[in-house]
Amino acid sequence: EESAGFDSNCITPGTTFMERAAEHLRYFVRYKVQHDALWRRLRVVISAADVPGEGEHKIAAHIRSERECARRHCVYGLDADLIMLALATHAPAVLILREKVVFRRPNADSKRKVSLASTGDFVFLHASLLRRYIDLEYRSLLLPYGYSLECVLDDLLLISFLVGNDFLPHPPGLQIENEGLG
Q: Which end of the chain is less congested by CB atoms within 10 angstroms, N or C?
């Protein structure tokens, strides 16, 4: 029987694939910590599919719980929610490593409108630097009430999630394609 290829439905909590992936990941981390001197000083946290919650939100909760520690957190991922969640943690040093992607027009045979393609380059986003830019932008406004960067960030994040959330319908006046955030 001809193979249909990889079934992406197996990448979901509770499947044998995810249980085995977590098992292999735990083995790999144990091996590296025992045999690689560079890994011995690292603290690796694994939160596999057996722990409830969406990945980005589990990462943000972990960073918030470690907020008082003088630690740097580096998160890899393409999900734009990571940027918002990094700001929402209010943690002092969160870096996001993202692969640089470009939009590609499909060929004539493709059914897709636009696709993303990797460039092989990576981008570091420093959440603390983004916080400073937002602070500079909003601090200069003459506000009739007291200024708080944390409140500005919380308000900006709330509006951003309303505009770009996958789970809620968009309010008509806040659609990104209609310059709702502009």
A: N
Whole-number Cα distances in Å, 147 to 131, 136, 155? 14, 12, 12
150 within 8 A of 140, measured Cβ to Cβ? no
Residues of the chain by 3-state class (helix, strand, coil), percent to 5: 45, 15, 40
pLDDT digits (tens, 9 = 90+) for 102-140: 776 666 665 655 566 777 889 899 999 999 999 998 888
Q: Which of 57, 76, 52 is nearest to 124 (CA)?
A: 76
What local confidence, expressed as pLDDT, does residue 97 receive?
92
Dist CA 123 CA 81 (whole Å): 16
Q: Is residue 181 pLDDT above 70, yes or no?
A: no
Q: What integer best gives the mean pLDDT of the chain?
A: 81
Tell me the Ramachandran region of residue 27: left when phi exceeds 0, alpha when psi lies from -120 to 50, beta otherwise: alpha
pLDDT classification of 85: cutoffs 50, 70, 90:
confident
How far is it, in rounded angstroms, from Cα 50 to Cα 63? 19
Q: How many Cα atoms are found within 13 Å in the side-chain-facing hemisphere of 58?
A: 11
